[in-house]
Design goal:
319 residues; alpha/beta; Rossmann fold; Dihydrodipicolinate Reductase, domain 2; 7-stranded mixed sheet; 6-stranded parallel sheet; 8 helices; 15 strands
Length: 319
């Protein structure tokens, strides 16, 4: 039976989800909510370049009030500002399964209210931190012991506020532990602008984390852009040095030869959705799983903003 998927937001990341969705071909019908006509046209031009035989039915609207289908899944690909209200409205409309872009919302209180409302409606939501679906990372995970892992990340100016959640979720997945305490004392004192507009900021510097299992993580994003994205995984079993920027395993102590390949959203979304439809589950963290990591990021970034700019904000301006 054909499934109904609603995609809310079809800008940069939403259009990539759409490219993945159409690979499901005639197994789905797609309803898209995107208020910007320009974004609609860009997305349409992208998908028409794909070689799809049985193109799914796609209906375009500009407001969620226009949705007239009962969905099997809603993909929410808007930015974090106002997302709590958006998800709350979608729940009130009767939608019950969600794939949500990170950062889910902008405060601990919003996140807690969202979890409670999901429970009230017996709904489920997964957070799109998609490195779990990279085949290369699945292989690396099998080589590492999860109780003594240290992960060190070094990168250029890619946006620590926007991207730390991806690395922290990778670490949580590798260690089977979401309870990570973060230290933001080594963040740079300069607050950076965010390419997504004046409602958001960015950070550089270092975040240090420790789990209750005594596993450790360090994430450093430098304010300059010409530094490759490298990750070093060290455990008793093996040591792996990876350059994500060049898709290369630089060093590996295991005898097994490893290759690395980035799997883009457009090549992953169909796999995530297929898992959800088949099992009502997927490899991604649930909303509840990702709560602790999100709230630690809210805490350290807001604490740092207060130290530098002195305002007391209830919302953390990252997306």
């Amino acid at each position: 039976m054909k499934k109904n998927v609603v995609l809310v937001g079809c800008g940069n990341i939403g259009s990539r989800h759409l490219q993945g969705l159409i690979k499901l071909q005639d197994k789905v019908s797609i309803t898209i909510i995107e208020p910007q006509i320009k974004a609609q046209k860009i997305a349409q031009s992208l998908i028409h370049k794909e070689k799809i035989k049985n193109f799914p039915v796609i209906n375009w609207f500009q407001n969620i009030s226009e949705i007239n289908v009962k969905s099997d899944l809603v993909i929410v690909a808007t930015n974090s500002k106002g997302r709590f209200d958006l998800l709350s409205s979608l729940l009130d409309q009767g939608h019950k399964r969600f794939l949500v872009e990170k950062i889910v919302c902008q405060s601990k209180s919003e996140y807690m209210k969202l979890i409670l409302k999901m429970k009230k409606y017996k709904a489920k939501s997964w957070v799109n931190t998609p490195r779990r679906y990279f085949k290369s990372y699945q292989k690396i995970k099998k080589l590492l012991s999860n109780d003594d892992l240290t992960l060190t990340v070094d990168a250029g100016n890619l946006g620590l506020g926007s991207n730390a959640i991806h690395i922290l979720d990778l670490f949580s997945w590798f260690t089977d532990n979401y309870d990570i305490s973060l230290n933001g004392d080594y963040l740079d004192n300069k607050i950076l602008s965010n390419k997504r507009g004046k409602n958001f900021v960015e950070f550089s510097g270092t975040l240090i984390g420790k789990s209750k299992k005594n596993t450790f993580i360090s994430i450093t994003f430098h304010p300059t852009s010409n530094i490759p994205f490298t990750l070093m995984f060290v455990s008793k079993k093996t040591k792996i040095l990876l350059n994500e920027s060049d898709s290369k395993i630089i060093f590996n102590t295991e005898k097994e030869k490893l290759n690395f390949k980035i799997d883009y959203v457009s090549n992953i979304t169909d796999k995530i959705i297929s898992d959800i439809f088949k099992k009502d589950s997927c490899l991604l963290p649930s909303l509840e799983n990702s709560f602790a990591t999100h709230t630690e990021l809210f805490r350290v970034f807001n604490q740092h903003l207060k130290k530098i700019q002195h305002p007391q904000s209830k919302l953390c301006p990252i997306t």
